[in-house]
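As a next step, we paired sequence with structure tokens, yielding the entry below.
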Amino acid sequence: MLRAVTDEAKELTTSRIRTVADGISAPLQPGWATSVPPGNNVGMKVIVCVKQIPDPALPGELDPSTNTLKRDGKLILDESDSYGVEMALQLVDAAGGGEVALVSMAPNGEVSGMRTALAMGAAQGVLVSDPALAGSDALTTAKILAAAVQRLGGADLVIAGTESSDGYTGTVPEQMAELLGLPSVTFAKKVTVDGATLKVDRQTESGYDEVTCPMPALVSVTAGVVEPRYPSFKGIMAAKSKPVETVTAGDLGVTPVGWAGAGQTVASVTQAPARQAGTVVEDDGETYAKIVEFLEGLKVI
């Protein structure tokens, strides 16, 4: 079994059976998630963390008052999380039934991205939307999402993307696992369930590790773990009536949040230097020597 946690998350551990501390009021007890009888996965419940982000096809804008990314327009489902949604749907189908639920954190009650995941086949969701959350760091985000998972009653498996396309901290899934007291497997390129055991091919620089761990568990998946389906017209129409509960940080009992919880501010933002023109090398029959000389100068070879 592999367990990946951050030092920051480790500091929140109070005992072997963990309590969700520092702002999450309700403790997590043994058996908090739906149990999976050995050899029987029927009725499997999976919760997927989905992030709603500004459309990456449009130029991003910073809020001049906070130097943070503006999120006041329509948000879309982060492509990296669509893989987690598809993985969850396939696991539930393979189990013979069950439910896929969503948790998300976004401003202004925005649910456009969540509706895309619901149209793919997820059944319900919890959206945490609260102006007080502006400026929240990765650990606060993990606390919020962990509490949202708890509000849904836990699950056999929690799935998240490896990292978001607009933040790239790559720490939230592991922090959530520590807060929830779950084993965590990261960088999953293949996920299967055998009874009460999670089996994962974990991607590495040199290949992949074959990892097993007991369920319930939390797994972060890489892009390409599966091919996400396109929502059908029927799914899009059905998604409009699927329940999404909107709650605040106060409803979840998480405090402090936002800038106060992060304990940091963005002091300034500097424009990145303009990209300089490269060197054009004309092929005169001896071009290879110039290229080798250039690479040697960069100490690449």
User: Anything to note?
Assistant: DSSP finds nine helices and 13 strands in the chain. The chain has one domain: 7-269.
